[in-house]
Design a protein that fits this description.
Elements (H helix, E strand, L loop, with lengths): L1 E6 L3 H16 L7 E7 L3 E3 L13 E3 H5 L5 E4 L2 E5 L4 E4 L4 E3 L2 E4 L3 E3 L7 H4 E2 L4 H17 L8 E5 L3 H16 L5 E6 L9 H14 L2 E5 L3 E4 L3 E4 L4 E3 L2 E4 L3 E3 L16 E2 L12 E3 L4 E2 L12 H19 L13 E5 L5 E5 L4 E5 H15 L8 H7 L9
Parallel strand pairs: 1-2, 1-9, 2-5, 9-21, 11-18, 12-13, 12-18, 13-14, 20-22
Antiparallel strand pairs: 3-4, 6-7, 7-8, 10-19, 15-16, 16-17, 23-24, 24-25
Length: about 400
């Protein structure tokens, strides 16, 4: 029996596993010939991009409902080692798994520097568990510390997309909890949304203002305590909550492969998502730097992670059986940024030209967040394999 391992259960990992199952079905490979197994730290597929929202009840999907119907195995384990020479993977529990082909889709993590107080007092929305810890913390503040100075003040560090969405959502969340909201968005760049371009930035700045979010740009954070944040400008903010949204880096597992990595730690892959220079290993999602067109590389997003996973799943099985591989190219790029109660902003192209905003863009964002990025929830083999086709969705 040949063994295909998929590491990670995020957008890329899930669709790589389902894509592999679909390709086996297409090739009519007899049962018992190839074993596809996913290794993931949690037995869930989390809709990570919604972690800034208040209600995450629909954001954690049992992997068994998605993998069992298509015959993919799942092991709940934290992968700690990859030996490409021996073609084995080891876990924190000491177990070893051999592979004939491997898809690395272990995702990314928020970068937390060695900053005084950050690890003790900082929160994040990088994972489902992290977002739930933040929600529990805010609830406790409302229940016990509402009269304390700074109880309703939240400092959000990092004015990229996640930071902006989090900051825009928080004032309403705090009011719902009975706290008097003060949200301060901090970034070392001179402007918020530094990657969003000149077209979208005025929309974002107005939305932050309309939501009552204060902005501090061109400054960093020096230290965090349970009740305050010290900025590099010398300003001291009384705040009971700090949410760290500054910077992302690929999973540290990429460092175990003898391969080229970019400044985000992502592996260089070819047009078929094979890791360059490492036989029998594919990479997809946030751990891979894949070419989207002649000028642009992939970004860490579900927009790219989902199709990368589908193509990696198709190609890993095709490679195993000596079949032709598919080249991944995505000829369009959009960004839909949630701006809280005041709406959203929708941009098209790599220069991010605004094509919709306000309620129109918000409706598109809600469609994406609640339907478009979800796998079928029917636990039906036919539905799941159909959704795993290596095809590109149209613009939302």
């Amino acid at each position: 029996m040949s063994r295909v391992l998929v590491i990670g259960s995020g957008f890329a990992g899930l669709w790589a596993a389902l894509g592999a199952a679909r390709r086996l079905d297409e090739l009519a490979v007899p049962a018992g010939t190839v074993e596809v197994t996913m290794l993931s730290a949690q037995p869930f597929h989390d809709i990570r991009v919604r972690n800034y929202e208040a209600d995450l009840s629909a954001c954690r999907i049992p992997l068994a409902d998605l993998l069992d119907p298509v015959g993919v195995g799942q092991v709940t384990a934290t992968v700690t080692g990859i030996d490409t020479a021996a073609r084995t993977v080891t876990t924190a529990a000491g177990a070893t798994y051999a592979y004939d082909r491997l898809v690395l889709a272990s995702g990314s993590r928020v970068c937390k520097p060695d900053l005084p107080g950050l690890r003790e007092f900082g929160f994040d929305v990088d994972s489902y568990d992290g977002a739930m810890r933040l929600a529990d913390h805010l609830k406790r503040l409302a229940e016990r510390l509402a009269a304390t100075r700074g109880a309703g003040t939240v400092v959000v560090v990092g004015a990229g997309l996640t930071g902006i969405e989090t900051a825009c959502e928080l004032p309403h969340r705090l009011r719902e909890l009975g706290l008097a909201p003060r949200v301060v968005l901090v970034d070392h760049n001179a402007q918020v949304g530094s990657d969003m371009g000149d077209s979208a930035r005025p929309v974002i700045e107005k939305a932050l203002s309309d939501n009552g979010v204060e902005v501090r740009t061109g400054v960093g954070v020096n230290a965090i305590t349970a009740a305050s944040v010290s900025l590099s400008s010398g300003e001291q903010l009384e705040a009971a909550t700090v949410v760290w949204c500054a910077g992302m880096r690929a999973s540290a597992l990429t460092e175990q492969l003898p391969a080229t990595r970019d400044r985000f730690g992502r592996l260089a892959v070819d047009d078929h998502l094979r890791v360059m220079g490492v036989p029998s290993v594919f990479a997809a999602g946030d751990v891979a730097a894949a070419r989207m067109d002649d000028e642009h590389m992939s970004v860490m997003s579900c927009q790219h992670g989902r199709p990368m996973g589908r193509y990696a799943g198709y190609n890993v099985i095709s490679d195993l059986f000596g079949e032709p591989l598919l080249t991944l190219r995505i000829p369009w790029y959009v960004t839909v940024l949630d701006l809280g109660p005041v709406g959203a902003v929708y941009t098209e192209g790599w220069d991010r030209i605004v094509v919709a905003q306000g309620e129109q863009a918000k409706a598109t964002k809600q469609t994406i967040n609640t339907r478009r990025i979800y796998p079928p929830l029917t636990a039906n083999r036919t539905d799941l394999l159909a959704a795993a086709a290596p095809e590109l969705q149209a613009r939302p």
